[in-house]
Fold this protein.
Amino acid sequence: GYLDELDLTSRQYVLFVGALVPDKGPDLLIDAYRELHTDLPLVVVGDSPFAASYGAHVRELAGRDTRVRMLGYVRGDRYRELVANAGIYVHPLRSDGTSPALLQAMGFGNCIVVNSIPETLSAVGDAAVSFRHNDPQDLAAKLQMLLDDPTLAEQYRNRALERATQEYDWDKVTEAHVEVYRRSVGGMA
């Protein structure tokens, strides 16, 4: 599979997915990662479609740490394989909290670490570890805690999967929409 091609082992890497733009916070994560005591790689999926100079800055930061692997865009089955097997999925967004990538990571039962912004916190509930707003030192501390305690990471994996199943199941989402439409049409009659 794709993991073999990349010489990655299931649950033995940290994953970031997102555009290399300031709002998505990859620089926060790389700054934090450089403080960690671990041999596990940080895998960065995404590129900088607009912010070329920022993308270059992120790649330069990544280049200072041999554990950081910049993959650029990854799609389809290869993408799903990466997300499904991540040890820890980090969502360091500075704004614009919920993304399809975050919900997918929950659905794949990842151990998730998020920046403390209201939209993200409401999406993950108690199913993720949060770090102090935009604080790379606290992010490093939370990542180290999870890397040092695989049992805790496993508990967060189970919570993420449970929350995704309860809150973001498509049948439930569809039923909720139908009910809203029913009520609004009923109210008009």
Notes: The first strand starts at residue 14 and ends at 17.
